[in-house]
Design goal:
CATH class of chain C: Mainly Alpha
Strand content of chain C: under 5%
Chains: A mainly alpha, B mainly alpha, C mainly alpha
Oligomer: heterotrimer
Largest sheet of chain A: 2 strands, antiparallel
Radius of gyration of chain C: 22 Å
Order of helices and strands of chain A: HHEEHHHHHHHHHHHHHHHHH
Number of strands of chain A: 2
Helix content of chain A: over 70%
Number of domains of chain A: 1
Helix content of chain C: over 70%
Distance between the termini of chain A: 33 Å
Number of helices of chain A: 19
Structural class of chain A: mainly alpha
Radius of gyration of chain A: 21 Å
CATH topology of chain C: Helix Hairpins
Order of helices and strands of chain C: HHHH
Strand order of the largest sheet of chain A: 1-2
Largest sheet of chain C: none
Chain lengths: ~475, ~500, ~130
Amino acid sequence: MIAMFSDASLLILALAIPAAVALLVALAGRWPNLREAISLVGALLLAVTIFMLLARVLGGARPSLHLATIAPGLDLALALEPLGMLFASVAATLWIANTIYSIGYMRGNSEPRQTPFYSAFAVAIFSTMGVALSGNLITLFLFYELLSLSTFPLVTHKQSPEAMRAGRVYLLTLIGASMILLLPAIIWTAVATGTTAFTPGGILAGHVNPIGMAVLFGMFVFGAAKAAVMPLHRWLPAAMVAPTPVSALLHAVAVVKAGVFTILKVSVYVFGLDTLRETGASQWLVYVAGFTIIAASFVALSADDLKRRLAYSTIGQLSYIVMAAAIATPAAAIGAALHIAAHAVSKITLFFAAGSVYTAEHVTKVSRMDGIGRRMPWTMAAFAIGTLAMIGLPPTAGFLGKWFMLGAAGSASDWFAVGVIIVSTILNGAYFLPILTAAFLKPAGGPVAEAPVAIVVALTATAIGTVLLFLFPDVPLRLASAMVAP
Amino acid sequence: MTLAVLQHHLPVLVVLMPLLGGLLVAIIRHPAASWPIAIAAAAASLAGALALSREVAANGVISYALGGFPSELGIEYRVDAVNVLILVVVSFMALATLVFARLSVASEIDEGRQPWFYTMMLVATAGLLGMAVTGDAFNAFVFLEISSLATYTLIALGRDRRALVAAYQYLIVGTIGATFYVIGVGLLYLATGTLNLELIAERLPEVTSPRALLAAEAFILVGIALKLALFPLHAWLPNAYTYAPSAATVLLASTATKVAVYLLARYIFGIFGLHREFGDISGASLLILLSLAAMFLASAAAIFQNDVKRLLAFSSIGQIGYITLGIAIANSDALTGAFLHIANHAVLKGAAFMAIGAILYRCGSERLDDLAGIGRAMPVTGAVLTIAGLALIGVPGTSGFVSKWYLVAGAFDAGKGWLALMIVASSFLAVLYVGRIMEIVWFRPPGRVALAAAEAPGGLLVPMVALATLTVLLGIAAYWPAEMAHSAAEALLGVRP
Amino acid sequence: MTFVETLASEATRYVIVIVMVAGLYTIIARGNLIKKLVGLSLFQSSVYLLYLLPAKIFGGTAPILDDRFEVYSNPLPHVLILTAIVVGIGTLALGLALAIRIKAAYGTIEESEILARDAARAEGKERGA
């Protein structure tokens, strides 16, 4: 049955399923139950497809497919390697949880324009899959831009003046950075090396001088503004005006991870970790990312809006990954890859919980969450697990990535990075733990009243996933190791 | 046998078809007959251009002696990889515009004047095709004037009285430009004794007076620059595009300036050479400077327009800057980008102006504020406008991306990384003005105009959707046009390495 | 070289330049649409001279193949300028036609007044809206 599908057809399916969902959802707009069923079935089918691919990649296969030649030297191609596989698996799995959650959230809050919402969401997943599966920089860029465009209607879903303003910041930052920095970086690479294909070991060595290498690396890092490295981070808190499912899957998983994924992928497959280390082209980024981590933590400390606090936490967590990419040792890259998965599943839990609180009690402020843990035990238990992952404590997935990164920074004698990781861990605790103490230790002040069941199911599942990923890290670890294997 | 004869005469037939078609329309002068004749003439012309492109790809340059006179005496029509691309673009856009014109013209122009409108469309097309196909400097002037005179008339047929003033102003500027050009040609003729572009290039080394050449070059290039609206000689363009009838704007925006750009490239690469010094400044750096000015200033001006047609007109001036920049960088990639952008921009701007024409057809307004929420009333039209806008920005998956890719690659290849950054930075301005339109069209609550509007009729939708589809196709499967543009670039660079 | 010949070769160039510049100046400096067209015509006429004067050969005849004549004027410039004159007439006619239509639509052919009337109308519209 599984063998029925060739590698290429599975790759096509991974793109075709979300595309079909987008189309069918738009057509089924008049029948909400059918519409939601399509989303759910689509998410399941996509996950099955991705897991079939996963089995093959773990078996050593590297599925690839040439899609089209736009023009001589401009190819669209898919090629799955371990890092992309990891990203695709995370996104596809969480899409299921998110779809269940969305149904509860959108209905629970009687949101308007649900059909365009689900449709645009599927397009965003389509773009995310494209980013994960892309075989060269051009294909990556195509889907990267499509992801920015398709999430704009989601960010501006409320269509209030505030939402429109936020949408403008969102789109102009993302598109502007990718057009002004990422695109020329890609073209520079193409002109210098004659190829844009992702190649183990990198393609740039010997084609660009060390200074040019550092400039080019900077263009990639800031061009991928979805990674929210300061100073290009403002779009992320702005995007929090979106409905919570959007913040959860897109601005904790798909969109931001597309950014760090791009940076990590470029580091490993375009520059090559060895080349980065030898030329020192990425050294400066350790400091910029370190600054981002600390600065974002301080902003998060003072943010009273829960989603805003989560957003700044995301900015900090993303920069862990960026910093690890900049350290550019195999161990650091493994840590970065693990953290992509770990942060995704735990941050989505936090957002799910935030949305759950909003749906049940219309609370958005941290200062009004006293005793909420007693009224909404499931929600806040999940929130607590997510919090532990953010700080990097066992038994959660967050521990793994951080452990690898800390070890890598130490063995690279990068004491700045070591210091940043330790200090930020304390800061993470400082802005998350008070929420927990207030939620669980203050008097309940009301009866137990959880959010709709779909919401609770989804957030419980991702919370369990956060723990499972700690207990059974075998698959992501194997993928991450395969990424840096020579 | 007859087919072979036709084949032999193709270079002139391509021009004659629309010219005779125009004549026929003017003689019959019946509103119902005009459109079919025009379509037939344009289609025949396009078929001819495509046949020529196949022949050029197979056998190389085609030389056709008009009336059988040798090129020393007579006029030579010369079709090579460079102008065959222009022929295809112009005849294709003419056909697309004429398909669109039927309903648009019926709603915008008095019945009695409609035949004249079609006549002028065809004559303008013939003139543009003639400019492209001829290998004779003076003949190019005659065709330039033919197309210009027809164009002035087309603009003057606009509904607003300001169309008259716009046409008049364009007439003055256009005639000055054409006269400059013919002065330059006269000087070249005095210096070399021939009007054939190939022969002029051959005899140039023998010319003893560099001053005559310099004067000729200055007159010719400035004259052409006026026609192609090179910054800062662009002042005529916004009014002309804004007040002309919708169909005329589509034709003008997608073809007229493009042919002038072609002529510029022909003279720069075929005759004068790019790196001549004017005092301390080389021609190349001057052209780079003006192109950059167009890319930034005109695009910035576009952001602040309240009339969509005018906004797109300023955008056109900026986009021409990209094309001339590619000519100024003058390596294979950059020129490929420039020629691709000639084709891509023709198609995408055609689609954009058609969408605006359709909105005008349904709503009677093209003010940006009146377009609030129009995307919900006219989703297909809105989608076409969106695709064209994305292509203007250069979003991957659209044609604009491919031409920008080549341009930027050309800049890097020339060792001008800063220029590459300028190209992408200026296209950020396109994000702003396109974003402004998109926000109003899709995300504003529908206003009074949008609530009363309905989707455009099929006659308008078909050509516009076709062009939008082509814009996407040229973004994902541009192999053939890229090859054409590449061989055009190689041909130009090969003439004078 | 006789005086006449010197004059012919030098003075003609000055004449060309003077006519050309006078025409251009008139186009730019005059606000009256008709006067602008007059300037345009002058400007174009200078080009006719530019082509024709060097083509004139003293003692030359029209290019007729006959044993009695050996010196011809070059016919090509004459033919070219014949075309250019036709184009010029076309342009002038169209320009005048436009001027008539503008007069009918605006009631004036002074550029500054036309612009002022357009500006006034645009302002009125803004206020009306």
